[in-house]
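Database export, one record per block. Field names are fixed; values are copied verbatim from the stored entry.
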Amino acid sequence: MSLARNCAHKKRREVRIMVSSANNPYSLPRDLPNHRDHWAVILAGGDGTRLRPLTRRIAGDDRPKQFCPILEGKTLLEQTARRAALAISPDRTFVVVNRAHEPFYRPLLARAPSHSFVIQPDNRGTTPAILYSLLRIAALAPSDYVAILPSDHFVSNDRTFMDHVTAAFEAVRRRPELVILLGITPENAEVEYGWIQPGGATMAPGASVLFGVDHFWEKP
């Protein structure tokens, strides 16, 4: 998950990572503010090919994993939208989808405002999806703050996660030149996945810890 002030038309931003772990819990208010300048972009346009054998077994078709009820009878997309709504209004939430997936996402988002869909003609990766969404938001609110939320992540505690998002919003409000990523301290090395190599601590908003990013290690 990443968060920044809308910078679709602005210069390159410095990247920071906010890291949490069981030994470094956040101490934030439980009643999350619903700021009018906070937006969410939910990325749901991926094809989910790696988990296709599992999703085919569950759903009986080739739907991407974010549209499959993998856990608790809810899809990852539904869980992501519900989680985002704890702190960000659905009226200020965009969902990036692929036109070919309409039979899968329309029933799940039947109550979503019609303007909330950012429909791509095809899957061209994460960067175009984010840029297109930021351009849409920039046309409406060029100085607002945006959280980018993938729809294929499992989160065990929605409220705690949105506490972290709120802390990141506040950090960007103080340092609008930053792009902030949310990361978690791993329990062990998983070399088959990518990871973020943090640098030195630069700022600690509230009870969180903010680090620079030395390197992004991509999965093999």
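Remark 1: The chain has one domain: 2-217.
Remark 2: The first strand starts at residue 2 and ends at 5.
End of record.
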